[in-house]
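Batch job 17 of 40 flagged for manual review because the log was empty.
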Amino acid sequence: MRRKTIKAQTCKQLLDTFYAQPRLTKVEKLTFSGVGNRDVYNITAPFQYDGEEVILGRVEERDSEFSQVFFFTCYNQVWSPRIHTHTYNLQDPCKTVIKGELIIGGVEVITAEDDPGKIVSWVTQFYRGFQIDSLCHFSSGPGTMKDIRLIELADGRIGIFTRPQGTRGGRGQIGFTIIDSLEELNEQTFLDAEMFQDQFVPEEWGGANEAHLLKNGHVGVLGHIACFDELGNKHYYSMVFSINPETCEKTPIKIIASRSDFPSGPGKRPELEDVIFSGGLIRSGNGRAVLSVGVSDAEAYQIEIPDPFMDYES
C-alpha cells in the first residue's frame, strides 16, 4: 500500500493553527513534599495502583542534570514519595501496562570515566513487574536514544516508538515497529524501527511521550515538537498524531498545549523558559482530557483540554 505523503510543518506553522483555535482549559500546579529543595517535573499521568493514585516524577537540583525518578502518591492535594518504594537514577519517566504488567522506563545518563560530573551519553532503561515494589530491569535502548515508548496493540502485539538522532535521525525523528512479545525487545529492535521521514523539518525535532490505543485499533501518540530560535533558546510544545499500526499511515501533527497556557514561573535555565514536556494524558470520556506536563524544566502542571484523540476515532 502506498502511503499518503504528509508535508512536515514547522513549529511556527503549527502554532499559528493552534492559536487560531481557542479552547477552554483548566490549569493546576502540582505541589510536592518530601524531596527537600529539589524540583519535580516531567511527570507521568496519574495511574491507579493498590487503591491510590500514583505518578512518577523527575526529581533534581535546579543546577544539576543528575536526577532520580520517584513514585509519588497524593494526600490533601500534596504529592509525596510513596513510602518504602525504590527510586531510580533516571530522567524523564514513562509508564505503560502490557498484558497486565507494569512497564516503567527512564533515561540513564552516562558519565565520562575520568570526570563523573560530565555527561557523555544516555541510555533508556526499562523495568517490568506486576508490583511497584518488585520491578526488574529487562531491556536497554541504544546509546543516545531517548523517547522510546511501548504500547500493547489491539491484537496483543507490542508497538514500539523510537527516536533516532544523528546521521539517521538528525536532531530527532520518530520511528515505529511491532514485535510479538517483550522477550523480543533488544537494542537491535529499536535500531531497526522504520523512521518517519515527514514529521519534522530538518531544523526541528520531536519524539513520542505516551501512546494510547484508540477505539478503532489505531494508536494516538502524545509527544513533543521542538525548535531553537536565533538566540539558541529551546521551544517545546505538546503535540499529538495518530497512526494505523497495520499500514503505518499517520495523521499530521497538531499542537495541543504551549508554555503560554501556564502561569509564569521559575525555569532551570533561561534558554528553557519556553519548554513544556508532555508526560501523559488521561481521557475523561466526556470529550475532555487532562494533560500532565513538565514546565520550564522546573515545575509540574496538569491542564484540562479538549480530548485531542476524539477526532482520530471517528
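Reviewer: the log was empty due to a logging misconfiguration, but the result itself is present. The first strand starts at residue 26 and ends at 29. Unflagging and moving on to job 18.
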